[in-house]
Amino acid sequence: MPKKKTVLRVNGRQHELALDPNVSLLQALRDLGYTDVKNGCEIGECGACAVLLNGAAVNSCMVLAWQANGAEIVTNAGLGTLDRPHPIQEAFADAGAVQCGYCTPGMVISTKALLDRNPNPSEAEIREALSGNLCRCTGYAQIIEAVGVAARSLREAGEASRMGQRATDGSRSPSNSPGADQGVRRGGERR
Amino acid sequence: MSDRVTPKPLPPHHLPPLKQIGKPLRRVDALGKAVGATQYAADFSMPNMLYAKVFRSPVPSARIVRLDVSKARALPGVACVLTGADLPNAKLATDMPGQTGRSARKGSDAPVLATDVVRFHGEPIALIAAESLEVAEAALQFIDFKYEALPGVFCPEEALKPDSPRVYGESADPDAGAGDHNVIARWKIRKGDVEKGMAQADLVVENTYRVPFVEHAYLEPDAGVGWLDEQGVINLRICTQVVEHFRTVAKALGIPQNRVRVQGTMVGGGFGSKEDVTVEIFLALLARATGRPVKLVYTREEAFLATSKRHPFTITHRTGVKRTGRITASEVKMVADSGAYPYLTPYVLLYATGMATGPYKIDNVRVDSVAAATNQPFTSAFRGFGGPQAAFAYESQMDEIARALIMDPLAFRRINYLKTGETTATGQTIRSAAWSEECATRAVAALGDRTPSSPTRKIGRGFASYFQSYGRITWFHDTSRAWVGMEMDGTVVVRCGVPDIGAGQSNSLCQIAAEVLGVSLERVSIYATDSALTPLAGTSTATRQLYMSGNAVLQAAGVVRASLVKKAAEMLGVSPEEVDLADGKASVVHGPRSVATRPSSLSSSLEEDDRTASASSGRQGEPGARIPLAEVAAKCASEGLPLAHLAQFNAPFTEGIDPETGQGDIWPDFTFGAHAVEVAVDVETGEIEVLKSVACHDVGRAINSAAVRGQIAGGSHQGLGYALMEEYVVEKGMTKTPSLAEYLIPTSCDFPATDVIVLESGTGVGPFGAKGIGEPSLTPAAPAVANAVADALGARIFSLPFTPEKVLAAADAGKDVVRPDPNW
Amino acid sequence: MQPFSLGDALKILSEVKDAEPIAGGTNLMVDMRAGTHRPRVVVDVAALRDLHGIEVTDTEVIIGAATTIAEMLASPILAKHAPVLVSACSSFANPLIRNRATVGGNLVTAAPCSDTAPALLTLDAEVKLASVRGMRRVPLEKFLVSAFSTIRRSDELLVSVRFRIPSATATSAFRKMGLRKVSCMAKVDVAVMLDGDATGRCTSARIAIAAASPAAVRARAAEAALVGKMLIPEAIAAAASLTAKAATPRAGSEYKLRVVEALARRLLAEAALAIERGGSNA
After folding, report:
1. Tens digit of pLDDT for each residue in B465-523?
2. Residues of chain B with pLDDT > 70: what percent?
3. Most buried residue, A93, B300, B477, C34, by most Cβ within 10 Å?
4. What contacts B168, CB < 8 A, 6 or more positions away?
């Protein structure tokens, strides 16, 4: 089968590829080294392979790689790193929401998609947003908690940066604003 | 419940304040997983790597008539195809992972690759290694496989009949008695005099309970990479619960044990399935045959077919009881489906047998259990290991008896609960706290006010008590090893072979080391799960790691601590009793040192150190004086004093139980607890909704409270799934639920959060008085649902899961049942 | 293949052997992986402008076939005119699937447990099929033949599904029953749409079921039994009973008849109550 030229833009990087037309986006991403995108079932049932495709959370196993040509793809590893984790990732780590961790990348992606459109979700809305991500270890409770913490964290950071913007005119320094410090909390006690 | 009993006050803690233990600290593995940096078994690749696929049997019972792989071998890009013919002696000894290497039953070992016959749907027949996954998959189609269907046996009751087909053929066990040719294991318990006990009873209640095949459904399909290193040692980087499988691999390949190395990755869920050998031998064979690295990743559907399931059981309880509620005798019969190969069946059966009568004091007990081979999926370890099946039966039975006596279920149990100092059905004395009553009372109380029923939506409440062992069978002489050392800068390293399967196994060890050495958790690193480089710590199974490796770390850290304390005392000019290690410093305190509860072997060595220390220095130093640990460590190093220690922890070693009476100790200890639920049953659609779920367990001591809560929440969910939606359907040996679309596990929307109540008696044999919670958390959940549904409907469903059909049938049966007004 | 226009897509479907449209891929990808369905050529129709968008005219609502379930859930047009369809969409699989799955794909796959089909049947929906030979419109009821079988010819593309805007007084309800609360194949789907006059007499009744028969069907006898009657419990019970008779579950799934009957009764009662309250939730 002739290969299809495909450009995949992943976490801000551009990849120019010639791919077998049958290759799923999941396979293409993992072959490119984005192994944070996990294969749990390959039939769209478990959500472990979730990525953001032009901002929408989708199962990458259900997308043919060439269908994603030119689209903006974000994987979990694109949201944060060990040195600079995303507030969602931090919240998961702190809330005990990570046990075996295999569902975590997909959970974080679905969480990001949720909080992007609904910064203050109710518990029911959180459960619904995660209903396509299976977890076998946690029973979901600490994950749902983590999403709530992350939502609050992001709202506070949003507040802080808005206040910081106002402060460019005034005398108030952004670092005094609550929630502005998103520094890594290591080994400390949970709130 | 009608009478609200005030829970008894908990015994006083004798521990000095703990700094790290018990806190919900961020686990050492959490952030790496959260940002997607952690590399699981399938995330690793090597240069020049081949991709493997396994050719599997499409049928459950057949003779292989033709297996011609020549066309597959000839396919461009195929590097190697192996069949059973290429491995004359390769058998997988399927029982006893790891340390003790007991020999297997005659003829029932699983061949690594089937040769003459296939015994289950999915049995491996050939291995392919190719340049790409696509080529390997294509090559599967080129294998010329012809078979002749053989009569199979598809349920254990059939397998026990004298004229049933022999799963292992004529050669296996020719001396077996009639109907015994498919028997894999039998256990029995004879305690007291059951006939006499039944005669004393005012009422005898008999029921039969059934549970199905269940699939682990961990999120990470089995996977790994194998290669030969520069010394020709076979390296296997795989997800596993057992690093010690390197021995099994060596045996299957006919090579020395020190020529196989297992590097275990962070496991994406195991729950017992990754306790068996999965991809190890396939990778080793292909790596050896090709001389190149080989990667094997199971698809989800393949993981379903290729790996073990929880044992189906049929359990009949016959219980004699007095009107007062006292149980006088219990007779239990158990039949389990061992599937196509034994794996851990004999021990799962033992667990179910030993826990068959539940956490109750019964003087007259007779249990007969048998497991038979069939041409169904092979069954082995799954979280609870026979305990969940037994609990579904005994707790359903307890409520049935209470109903027959018209007695409150909790009041009935109170009369019969086992207490500390009393003996189980096998005569094992309970030495730790047995807080069944406390846990059940609290769990039920936490349900709060009862939701009102309506004619179509009936509300029911139920709870279940349980006990579940932690630690392995004591006649296996279980051991674990850990190495703890302090670096020159005061940071700490732990080396331990422990496989981390997601429950925080490695983090707990770090938290213990941190506590003992007075450093924060961030200052501890752990290197784990490598059979070549880390001390072997045994399996991550049987709820044993915290107990075994936790105690090993406690010991090892304790020795390092003693060394540091002794030196620091000299440097501070005080006696060692006045030195504490905290916040990365050695400081002078007055009063008892902050040292953890430790096993007696450690205590005596510390006491000896104390005496030596106080003899050598009598000066009093400044209270509040402190030295950074790095300085103390540097001083130790310059004087050649030990800063590291390798400790081995031994579980109690016992002899086996009496084969005729089943009497004797089986396990180190038990965890006790309870689960309570409130359900709403729609009597027109058969749907069950869990409205409230409460779990209360005595975990002995929580090392990381967030991890403990996570285990209880997760175990509860698996148990609720077991009750309400999980059934691995097999028809005539063929799997009918081949993927996660058919086999349903709970989502985020299915159940409310379980209210988790953690009690800490401090009486466990683990570090700091910890017990175990990994498996126990699952055991009572399904029976709690069973009792709640029976309460709702006034009729009981005797088999799991509670499908709409079963619910509707029970609703019909219970329609005219007059039930006493529920007031709890 | 990624055609730029509908015309190009239709040309490919007519000229290229074994070519199959793909949009969200949530069914086709599963089949391709399983090997049960491996078209030689796959034609991406997801981006075709003609297949997108939800429009409303004076008389009808038109939904492009490539509209995702998520888009339908978020549509104010559907919220206003077809709450039964929105309700069906909200119980469709899970959010990740909904972002890709399309209504066209769901109808063309014609799984017995399709969630959109029963809702659209109560809306008396019509599908529009296009090929190089032209366009044709077919009532959805006729389009769905049996399990995984429709009257679509292999060179035809489902372009849109449309329905007349229900009357301002019509009310509706939908319920999916599965073995798990979300993200599973339906065991029983029931959708109803009722209309009544000021006295509470039923002027129109549409009842559709899925997952309890090879294809989603309208329960015509039950509907006929209700029209002209007062929407009182007895009439509703009779209609529910007739609805169950329209179900043809597979052997061993007879319990579904009870569930269909129960759900139909509840949904009809719910819709009837809404009429009584004078509200429109159609």
Report:
1. 999 999 999 999 999 999 999 999 999 999 999 999 999 999 999 999 999 999 999 99
2. 90
3. A93
4. B107, B108, B181, B182, B373
Nearest CA in chain C to B808: C255
Identify whether the C-beta of residue A135 lies closer than 8 Å to the C-beta of residue A110: no
For B726, the token pair is: 């999980």
Taking an 8 Å cut-off on Cβ atoms, the answer to whether B804 and C182 are in contact is no
Contact A24 C29 (CB under 8 A): yes
Residues of chain B with Cβ-Cβ distance to C183 below 8 Å are 747
B822 band by pLDDT with thresholds 50, 70 and 90: low
Question: CA nearest C261 in B: which residue?
Answer: B684
Q: Quick check: B690 and B677 in contact, CB under 8 A?
A: yes
Name chain A contacts of B297, Cβ cutoff 8 Å.
39
Determine how β-strand B117-118 pairs with β-strand B62-68: antiparallel
Chain C: nearest CA to B687, how far in angstroms? 8
Domain C49-164 has CATH 3.30.465.10: yes
Mean pLDDT of B639-667: 95
pTM, two decimals, is 0.94
E-only strand ranges, B276-364: 294-297, 313-321, 327-339
Closest alpha carbon within chain A to B503: A99
- Domains in chain B (CATH in brackets) are 429-474+669-824 (3.30.365.10), 479-650 (3.30.365.10)
What are the boundaries of each domain within chain A?
4-78, 87-176
The verdict on B37 touching C (C-beta cutoff 8 Å) is: no
Cβ-based contacts of C70 with chain A (< 8 Å) = 56
Report chain A residues whose CB lies below 8 A from the CB of C25. 62-64, 67
* CB spacing of C22 vs A64 below 8 angstroms: yes
Contact state of A96 with B710 under an 8 Å Cβ cutoff: yes
What single-letter amino acid sits at B315?
A: I
Q: Which two tokens stand for residue B58?
A: 């499409």
Which positions ≥6 away from B645 have C-beta within 8 Å?
B483, B484, B485, B555, B556, B557, B559, B560
Confidence band of A180 (pLDDT split at 50, 70, 90): very low
The least confident of B89-103, B290-304, C185-199, C265-279 is B89-103
A47–C96 C-beta distance less than 8 A: yes
Q: Which CATH superfamily is domain A4-78 in?
A: Beta-grasp domain (3.10.20.30)
> What pLDDT is stored for residue C243 in this prediction?
97
Q: How far apart (Å, rounded) are the C-alpha atoms in residues B59 and A86?
A: 49
Q: Which residue of C has its CA nearest to B801?
A: C179
Q: Domain A87-176, what fold?
A: DNA polymerase; domain 1 (1.10.150)
* Pairwise CA distance, residues B234 & B224, whole Å: 13
Which whole-number Å values give the CA distances from B611 to A5, B608, B617, B640, in the listed order?
77, 5, 10, 21
CA distance A182 to chain B (A): 15
Backbone angles phi, psi at B643, to 5 degrees: -120, 5
> Under CATH, domain C171-276 is a member of which superfamily?
CO dehydrogenase flavoprotein, C-terminal domain (3.30.390.50)
Q: List B residues 209-228 in contact with A (Cβ-Cβ < 8 A).
A: 216-221
Q: If we measure between CA atoms, which residue out of C169, C52, C67 comes closest to residue C120?
A: C67
Q: Which chains touch A (3 or more CB pairs under 8 A)?
A: B, C
Q: Residue B109 — very low, low, confident or very high, per pLDDT cuts 50/70/90?
A: confident
Chains in touch with B (3+ beta-carbon pairs under 8 Å) read A, C
According to DSSP, the residues that pair with B303 across neighbouring strands are none
Domain map (residue ranges) of chain C: 49-164, 171-276
Query: Model confidence over B296-342: pLDDT tens digits?
Result: 999 999 999 999 999 999 999 999 999 999 999 999 999 999 999 99
What's residue A168's pLDDT?
A: 65
